């Protein structure tokens, strides 16, 4: 009984996540920034002092994949990159006015989607969902730690 419930709940969770990602991707396509680049742009907006290495680590992507996204964002006029005055190997990223507009539009889009996703749920139900999702994250972090230790 529990095994089936776990399986069905996990399936529903994955389906909800896929639907959310599809909706977000469709919605942000109007910004003309692709999803991966969009995530990088949003990350830079929230962590303006982060280095490329830090961003790659936080986003759990390879430095080379990040470099490709940054190059496209720079070419599109969404960011500017400059070398650190004390260390030429370090690059600073700055969001341009065009990039800032995309970030602002995106925040509005995300709030709209989030409100629609949780429509019809009371504050109490939201608190329960929040509690359960955080417990799931903690469980998965422990699993991840176990895998990291194994190899």
The strand count comes to: 2
Structural category is: mainly alpha
Mean residue pLDDT: 90
Task: Determine the number of helices (DSSP H or I, runs of at least 4 residues).
Answer: 6
Shape: globular
Distance between the termini: 34 Å
Strands of the largest sheet, in order across it?
Answer: 1-2
- Give me the strand/helix succession: HHHHEEHH
- Could you tell me the strand content as a percent range? 5-15%
Helix content estimate: over 70%
> What would you report as the Rg, rounded to the nearest angstrom?
19 Å
Main sheet?
2 strands, antiparallel
What is the quaternary state of this protein?
Answer: single chain
**Unreliable residue stretches:** none
Element layout with pairings:
Blueprint: H1 2-28, H2 35-46, H3 52-59, H4 63-75, E1 79-83, E2 91-95, H5 97-117, H6 123-150
Antiparallel strand pairs: 1-2
Features:
single chain; 151 residues; mainly alpha; two-stranded antiparallel sheet; 6 helices; 72% helix; globular
């Amino acid at each position: 009984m529990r095994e089936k419930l776990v399986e069905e709940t996990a399936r529903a969770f994955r389906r909800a996540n896929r639907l959310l990602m599809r909706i977000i991707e469709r919605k942000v396509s109007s910004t003309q920034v692709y999803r991966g680049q969009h995530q990088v742009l949003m990350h830079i907006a929230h962590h303006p002092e982060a280095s490329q290495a830090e961003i790659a680590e936080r986003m759990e992507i390879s430095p080379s994949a990040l470099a490709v996204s940054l190059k496209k964002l720079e070419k599109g006029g969404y960011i500017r990159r400059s070398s650190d005055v004390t260390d030429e190997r370090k690059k600073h990223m700055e969001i341009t006015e065009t990039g800032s507009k995309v970030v602002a539009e995106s925040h509005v889009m995300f709030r709209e989607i989030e409100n629609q996703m949780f429509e019809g749920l009371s504050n109490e139900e939201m608190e329960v969902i929040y509690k359960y999702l955080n417990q799931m994250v903690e469980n998965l972090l422990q699993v991840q730690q176990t895998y990291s230790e194994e190899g």
